[in-house]
Design goal:
CATH topology: Rossmann fold
CATH superfamily: Vaccinia Virus protein VP39
Family: Belongs to the methyltransferase superfamily. UbiG/COQ3 family.
Function: O-methyltransferase that catalyzes the 2 O-methylation steps in the ubiquinone biosynthetic pathway.
Shape: globular
Catalytic activity: a 3-demethylubiquinol + S-adenosyl-L-methionine = a ubiquinol + S-adenosyl-L-homocysteine + H(+); a 3-(all-trans-polyprenyl)benzene-1,2-diol + S-adenosyl-L-methionine = a 2-methoxy-6-(all-trans-polyprenyl)phenol + S-adenosyl-L-homocysteine + H(+)
Helix content: 25-40%
Number of strands: 8
Distance between the termini: 28 Å
Number of helices: 8
CATH architecture: 3-Layer(aba) Sandwich
Pfam family, one: Methyltransf_23
Largest sheet: 8 strands, mixed
GO molecular function: 2-polyprenyl-6-hydroxyphenol methylase activity; 3-demethylubiquinol 3-O-methyltransferase activity; polyprenyldihydroxybenzoate methyltransferase activity
Number of domains: 1
Strand order of the largest sheet: 3-2-1-4-5-8-6-7
CATH class: Alpha Beta
Strand content: 15-25%
Length: 236
C-alpha cells in the first residue's frame, strides 16, 4: 500500500463532523478526557518521564494527548489526516500557550521524511480506523530511534469489546457517537503483537485500560479483553 492510500475517507469525515467538540469535556470525547491522565501517567512511568524527549503522536485527533505531553515538557509533533480536527488542535494549543508541531500527514508519509527522529511514538485509538494497521505500525517503527519506545492502544476483537464499546458506550450510555467504532476493525492482541514483531520491534508489555461507568474513571490493569495498550521497543 502506498503512503497516500492507507486512509478511510469515511473515517476522516466522521471525525471532521464532530471536530468542534474535541475539547468539550462533557461532549462526545468525554471518555478521552477521562482516559488521558491515566494513559499519560502510564507512558511517563514506562519511559521514566517524558520531559525533554522528542515524541510524535500518530493519529492525534484534536490533540488531547499531544498537548498533555507537551505540557509535561516533551517536544511533541502530532499528525492526523482530519483537517478539521487539526485546526481545533492548533487553535487550542495556541490559546493554551502550548507548543505542538501539528501536521496533516499519514504515518507513512511522515515516516518517509522523519525516520529515526523520535524517542517515543504514540498511536492511540487509531489503528482500528485505518484500512491497513500493519502499514501504520511499520511507519511508527521507522519513526522511532533505535532504543526508542512505542505505545499502541486499540480495541480487542472480542464479544466483550463489542458489548461494551459499541452496545454500551455508543447505544446505551451515549458516551461516544453511534457509528464511531466498527467491530470488524477491532484488533486482537495476538494480531497486534504479530504486527509489531513484523515491523522489527520488541513487545515489552500489554495491559488493559478499564472504564468504570459508576465512578466515570479509567484505570490501567490486567485484562486485555476490551481496551488495551501494548508497549514496544525498537532494538538498539
Amino acid at each position: 500500500m502506498t503512503i497516500h492510500t492507507n486512509v478511510d475517507p469515511a473515517e476522516i469525515a466522521k471525525f471532521n463532523d464532530i471536530a468542534s467538540r474535541w475539547w468539550d469535556p462533557a461532549g462526545e470525547f468525554k471518555p478521552l478526557h477521562l482516559l488521558n491522565p491515566v494513559r499519560l501517567s502510564y507512558i511517563s512511568d514506562q519511559v521514566q518521564g517524558v520531559f525533554g524527549k522528542t515524541i510524535v503522536d500518530v493519529g492525534c485527533g484534536g490533540g488531547i494527548l499531544a498537548e498533555s505531553m507537551a505540557r509535561a515538557g516533551a517536544k511533541v509533533s502530532a499528525i492526523d489526516m482530519a483537517a478539521e480536527s487539526l485546526s481545533v488542535a492548533k487553535l487550542h494549543a495556541l490559546e493554551a500557550g502550548v507548543a505542538v508541531n501539528y501536521q496533516q500527514s499519514t504515518a507513512e508519509g511522515f515516516a518517509a521524511e522523519h525516520a529515526g527522529q523520535f524517542d517515543i511514538v504514540t498511536c492511540m485509538e487509531m489503528l482500528e480506523h485505518v484500512p491497513e494497521p500493519l502499514s501504520v505500525i511499520q511507519a511508527c517503527a521507522d519513526l522511532v530511534k533505535p532504543g526508542g519506545w512505542l505505545f499502541f492502544s486499540t480495541l480487542n476483537k472480542s464479544w466483550k469489546a463489542w458489548a461494551l464499546a459499541i452496545v454500551a458506550a455508543e447505544r446505551v450510555l451515549k458516551l461516544v457517537p453511534q457509528g464511531t467504532h466498527e467491530f470488524d476493525k477491532f484488533i486482537r492482541p495476538s494480531t497486534l503483537m504479530r504486527y509489531i514483531e513484523q515491523a522489527g520491534l520488541e513487545v515489552c508489555e500489554a495491559t488493559g485500560l478499564h472504564y468504570n461507568p459508576l465512578t466515570e474513571s479509567f484505570k490501567v490493569g490486567p485484562g486485555v479483553d476490551v481496551n488495551y495498550i501494548v508497549v514496544a521497543k525498537k532494538p538498539e
